[in-house]
Amino acid sequence: MHLAYPAVLSSLLFCTGLYGVLARRNAILVLMSVELMLNAVNLNLVAFDVWLRDTLHAGQALTLFTIAIAAAEIGIGLAIVLAVHRNRGTSDIDKLRDSAEPRDPDDDPHDPSGTPAATTADTTDEKAEATT
Question: Does residue 84 sit within a domain?
């Protein structure tokens, strides 16, 4: 078997998954695209393991490890997506960027314009000018 066939197929799968990660707005479709990218890596690992005729089958062992990691990633990812969907009502990634709750501007020690509040050195200079 030529190594070029699985390598080309793997690169096409990986590019499809990368496009899905970059272009999709739904969190579940992004997770599916990550899985597609991991499967492309698994295909490459097995193809190179067969091509190198490794007696330890390190490529296949790494593939099993990657499958286990992918299963854990999907379980945790889906749990997070479901929790966010329950709280926010959407799984749209663009609407989930503001994950922090809005803060009260009165609690901020800095001005809303971003400049720091007056320091003690500034207040002592103002007091000195006021007395002269």
Answer: yes
The helices-and-strands tally (H runs, E runs) of the chain is 4, 0
Q: Tell me the two tokens of residue 59.
A: 């490529």
Which tokens sit at 60? 């296949």
State the residue range of the domain holding 52. Answer: 26-96
Predicted model pTM: 0.69
* 99/73: higher pLDDT: 73
For residue 48, which of 105, 114, 1, 115 has the smallest C-alpha distance?
1
Q: Contact, 6 vs 43, CB < 8 A?
A: yes
Give the pLDDT confidence score for residue 104 in this predicted structure.
60
- Could you tell me if residue 115 is inside a domain? no
The answer to whether residue 108 scores a pLDDT higher than 60 is: no
Q: How many domains, the chain?
A: 1
Q: Is residue 30 part of a domain?
A: yes
